[in-house]
Amino acid sequence: MCRIEFCLLVFSISIIDASTLNGAQPSSRNNELKQFPSDFLFGAATSSYQIEGAWNEGGKGWSMWDHLVRTAPEHIADNTTGDVASNSYYFYKRDVQILKELGVNIYRFSISWPRILPYGRPDYVNREGVDYYNNLINELLANDITPFVTMYHWELPQNLNERGGWLTRDTDDENIIDWFGDYARVLYREFGDRVKHWLTINEPYIHCNHGYGYANHAPRRSSPGEGYYECGRNILLAHARAYHIYKEEFSQGGQVGIVLSCDWAMPSTDSEADAQAVLDYFDFHFGIYMDPIFSPQGNQPQSLIDRIANMSAAQGYSESRLRPFTEEQIDYMRGTSDFLALNHYTSYIVYKNESVNGMYVVPSHNDDAQIGMYRDPSWLQSISPWLYGYPAGLHNLLVYIKNKYNSPTIYITENGFSSNPGLIDNDRVTYYRGYLNAVLDALDDGVDVRGYCAWSLMDNFEWAAGFTVRFGLYQVDMNDPERPRTPRKSALVYKEIIRSRVIDPEYNPDPYETDGSYVIKTSCVFVITLALLNIVL
Ligand code: PNW
């Protein structure tokens, strides 16, 4: 009996501990009583390859990610694929239910290019793919949820990848700018009567850096000093093409924007060199994409153009590795975004580091930027090596964008934190509270930020990290064919913030209370443990 009581005690202490933990509330100001405006839009985000599954069903063609996971499976941390993922192709109604449960106003999802155009080109449209997104969009609208639709979240049709993809040249007869424009036209035609918020391309920096610079993502090219810039150049022109097609060929009354990622950077010391490193950080990560679209003069920052030209000349190139835009192209890109869709996750401390030179065998954009970066170990650390929480960084970034770019309309389209599986995700709760506080600070400072999407609605295929890293407000059991979605503590906290429009640091929900299966599972474990103990002892 005594043994059983001891076991019971240990067991109940562990439950109490887990459910009463409450994260600290980092906030630069006291926002506890402050409310989000009634028209501020809350949402959650996902992307097609990361959640849909049905990789070769419903008439879908191959994307370059389908190709990567079958030709280089060892490159994915746990050798997994997005073949099934959260299986949203079949369970999209359940996705809409959980969005409804959360009470969000908007859902940001992406359309898989090869699900609509299996071979990439519009001469063959896959009606089953169109039906899938029609069903999803209609289900969202029936539930009062506004779709924010990303046209391209890294799923280039493999067919177009093999024809040069993001490395084709705008002067080629066949090029990605035309291909992307033609694809965008199909999307406006099929869905534009109901979709009024279009996001053209997700994160040129991350896509080009990982896909064409350092070979971490599809199509795994290693060309950090040339291919990286070519990819970005094409993305800017392709985005502008999609924008012009919408404005010139359609009158659907919606808006079109681009999704840019930007983290915050602060100087390591108060030296002039480190102040320069901060300027360089923003030029090389953000200005390179932001200025051509959002600055009044257009084009990429002159400081960046000069730096890369000088570095290229010193390396023996006859022309800059950053190919210049023509005057016509500069005009074509300027002003082509009705809002900025901003993805933000983390911050860096940066310092001038000219000796990056030599770290890489070939020239690279990191080498061109001449900066070193690190984090303060006291920042909230996730399980992704690149992701540390520092909420003031978001506040600072939003104010920086307002001041530098004449106060564009901003939607935060991604912000989130990674963890291991488990429903008690106190660090994620701390992260979201901190970052939403930062948004309140920015609203106070007059930043025109109109909405916020948590990344992610649910666990999904985290690219080269496979399923080893979880970003979901909802946990997804990747071993269960039904892929049950279960709210984590962070989902319940986010839901309450959306409902009350206030961040209550005391609110401490218990996710297990909402999931009866936990009680059954833990009771079983308990009974089995007792039985085993009785046998052994
Ligand atoms: C974004 N970084 O990528 C993507 O849009 C999502 O598909 C992805 O799942 C999510 O963030 C989480 O990773 C990023 O290194 C990848 O700073 C890396 C970084 C930022 C964003």
UniProtKB/TrEMBL annotation:
It comes from the Eukaryota. GO terms for biological process: carbohydrate catabolic process. Residues 1-18 form the signal peptide. The keyword Hydrolase applies. Pfam families: Glyco_hydro_1. The keyword Signal applies. One of its GO terms (molecular function) is beta-glucosidase activity. The active site is at E414 (nucleophile). PROSITE patterns: GLYCOSYL_HYDROL_F1_1, GLYCOSYL_HYDROL_F1_2. Its EC number is 3.2.1.21, 3.2.1.46. Keywords: Glycosidase, Hydrolase, Signal. It is an enzyme of class 3 (hydrolase). It catalyses: Hydrolysis of terminal, non-reducing beta-D-glucosyl residues with release of beta-D-glucose; beta-D-glucosyl-(1<->1)-sphing-4-enine + H2O = sphing-4-enine + D-glucose; a beta-D-galactosyl-(1<->1')-N-acylsphing-4-enine + H2O = an N-acylsphing-4-enine + D-galactose; a beta-D-xylosyl-(1<->1')-N-acylsphing-4-enine + cholesterol = cholesteryl 3-beta-D-xyloside + an N-acylsphing-4-enine. Belongs to the glycosyl hydrolase 1 family. Klotho subfamily. This is Cytosolic beta-glucosidase.
